[in-house]
Amino acid sequence: MSGGSTDVAERGRASVIVVSTSAAADASLDRTGPVIADWLRARGFSVGGPVVVPDGGPVAETLTAAVTGGSRVVVTTGGTGVTPTDRTPEAVAPLLDLELPGIVEEIRRRGLAGAGPTALLSRGVAGVVGGGTFVVTLPGSRGGVADGLDVLDGLLDHLLAQLHGDGHGPRSAS
Fold this sequence. Notes:
It is built from eight helices and seven strands, in the order αβααββαβαβαββαα. By secondary structure, the chain is of the alpha/beta class.
C-alpha cells in the first residue's frame, strides 16, 4: 500500500482507539492517535478523530461500536504492556473471529531490532472481527506505532482484498 491514496468511498471507514489513562484525562497528551489517523487518511480511509479511553477502560465496547459503525480497519494504541492496567489484548482477543499472530510477531521483531528487548513486552493481537473488520492493537509508544504502521503498509491492501475482494489482492513487485 505504499503511500498513494485512493478514493475514500472505495477504502471505507477506519477507526483509531487510544488506550491511555493520561490521554483520557488530557487529550493533548496523546502522541500516537493522531499519527495513526493521519496515516489511515493518507491511504484513503475516512477517519474521525481518535477515541480515547483510559487503561482498562471500555476498549471492547468502543471497538464493537467502531465495527458496528462500519469500520473496515480499527487500530488501537496503548495498553499492550505488562502494567496492571494494560489489558487491551484481553479486551480485544475475545472479539476476534480469526487471529493473525504473524502481524504482531513482525511488529515485535522490528521493535526488537530498533528499540531493543523492551519491545518483547508488547502483548498486542491482530485479527478479523465480524467477518470483515481488521483489528490490530499497537503499543502506545511512538516507536511501536511507527513499527506497526510500517508493517501494515506492506500488507493492508492485500489483507483487505482477501477479506472483501477477490481473495488475492495486489502484490508488490519485489
